[in-house]
Design brief:
mainly alpha; rod-shaped; two-stranded antiparallel sheet
């Protein structure tokens, strides 16, 4: 716009000063080889001004035409970028909500920008793992690059030496996250490297985010994934503070394997300390033979608390394990509607072994 004003200003100056040239118009001669151009100073001035204005108008028209051609491509590029952002946002929200099916629907075929490709691949691997589609998860894992963010995911699916080595390096950092330490610990358990596991568990035991319930869930998962001998090794490397939290999980795993004799002394202490709820919780999983001494201790405690539901349930479990189905059935009769839902299977078994088939038929598990 400023250039237009300058052009018109020059034009006004030329017009204003033209009367001085009325009597002396001047003479201009341009000669180039055989070509000669002649004219007055005024005419050449107007021709120069007209040329400048013409060039300006041409440039503006050319620019407008160029924008007309380029703008549609920019428009579609903006729309494509906006679509990618929407797909990314939908996938992230689905991930936060644990909606893995929606995540796969949004991210499986929809394109995302290059900087988000690794996150997309990792999320799809995680979705397949959560849906227990292991073959698909491993196939997707091959295309996933290894870095500090993806190594824990790779180690949880394929705990090989390379992934464990990367996790070990990350776990040595003082600022290592709880998640990294937990993934490294689980990789060591998968490789049965219990000697290297203890310092990792000590670090985890000092993290505030590792509450009692989380420790119980994790340790129960670890115990179920190893043999009886390895379970004992794993128990021994747990820090004392953690053992106190997961003692019930440990005893329950022992009883489920029919090893009541190894834990009888501990259960006797529970009876003396009045830890009846814990006692009933682990005896629910009792397999194999019972213990007459422990059964007598429970019966002795019942003399003082004859209506204690947990003591009665414990007695029923021990009686059934000791082949005394009649006593177990009597205990369940005494409990009547107080029998918890997760004890119904044992109640039905007691009635069947005692020959009370009609009562067993009415037990809803």
């Amino acid at each position: 716009m400023i250039r237009v004003l300058v052009y018109f200003l020059v034009l006004a100056l030329v017009l204003a000063g033209s009367h001085w040239l009325m009597d002396e118009k001047g003479y201009v001669l341009i000669s180039f080889n055989q070509t000669t151009i002649e004219g007055t100073l005024v005419s050449f001035g107007f021709m120069a001004l007209l040329s400048m204005v013409s060039l300006y108008v041409f440039a503006r028209v050319a620019g407008w035409l160029w924008r007309l051609v380029v703008s549609p491509s920019r428009h579609w590029s903006w729309r494509r970028h906006r679509r990618q952002q929407q797909v990314l946002e939908q996938g992230l929200w689905a991930m936060l909500q644990g909606d893995w099916e929606s995540l796969e629907r949004h991210w499986r075929k929809a394109p995302v920008s290059e900087e988000w490709q690794t996150l997309k691949q990792a999320a799809l691997v995680k979705a397949s793992m959560e849906k227990e589609q292991w073959v698909q998860a491993r196939a997707q894992l091959e295309a996933l690059p290894t870095n500090e963010h993806t190594v824990s995911l790779k180690a949880s699916l394929e705990p090989n030496d390379d992934n464990t080595a990367v996790l070990a390096k990350l776990a040595k950092d003082k600022q290592a996250s709880t998640h990294t330490l937990m993934q490294y610990g689980e990789a060591l358990i998968a490789q049965r490297a219990f000697s290297d596991l203890k310092p990792v568990l000590v670090k985890l035991s000092k993290r505030a985010s590792m509450d009692v319930e989380l420790w119980r869930r994790k340790v129960a998962k670890w115990f179920s994934s190893v043999s009886a001998h390895e379970r004992e090794l794993l128990w021994n490397v747990l820090p004392k503070s953690v053992q106190q939290h997961v003692e019930e999980v440990w005893v329950q795993s022992q009883l489920a394997k029919g090893e009541l004799s190894k834990e009888e002394a501990r259960l006797q202490k529970w009876v003396k300390k009045g830890q009846f709820e814990q006692l009933a919780s682990v005896l629910l999983h009792l397999r194999g033979e019972g213990s007459l001494a422990l059964q007598q201790a429970v019966q002795h405690a019942l003399k003082a608390q004859s209506d204690n539901v947990y003591l009665l349930l414990s007695l029923a479990s021990l009686a059934l394990a000791g082949k005394d189905a009649q006593l177990a059935a009597k205990v369940f009769d005494q409990l009547a509607d107080k029998v918890p839902a997760h004890w119904k299977a044992m109640q039905k078994r007691a009635y069947i072994e005692d020959g009370q088939y009609q009562k067993a038929c009415f037990i809803e598990q």
